[in-house]
Predict the 3D structure of the following.
Amino acid sequence: MELPTIAAPGVGERADAVADAACHLYDTIAPWGTGAPGGWNRTAAEDAAEAIETTAHALASVGPGAEVVLAPVHAALADLRRRLGLAPADGLSGDGLPATPRTVGNPRRTRWVRVLTAPPSPRQPPSRTTS
């Protein structure tokens, strides 16, 4: 399948913003390393997982069969949520596809009360040594 050279209004800009945000997130978390305490908290991990899930839902509309190709992404994120003790996202059907597509324009709106009432968790990045 060949994609058009011009996207629908706003799609290119928003996809670019998502890619930039993902790079900034990686750059922010990379100094913590794997297994270092303090890099992630529950809300940040849930937000990041939700961003990937929502992006996968959007990308599933890129063409026929895209949702099947992206099914392992949803399955992997569901497993990650279980391992981290996070609330499950949209349910998956028997074939690993999301059982119901998102119908809320902004699914995060329902989470603001919980996020704003969570106690703050100050973090200090690990010290960087220079060679």
User: Anything to note?
Assistant: The two ends are 49 Å apart (CA to CA). The chain has four helices and no strands. The CA atoms of residues 38 and 123 lie 6 Å apart. The longest helix spans residues 11-29.
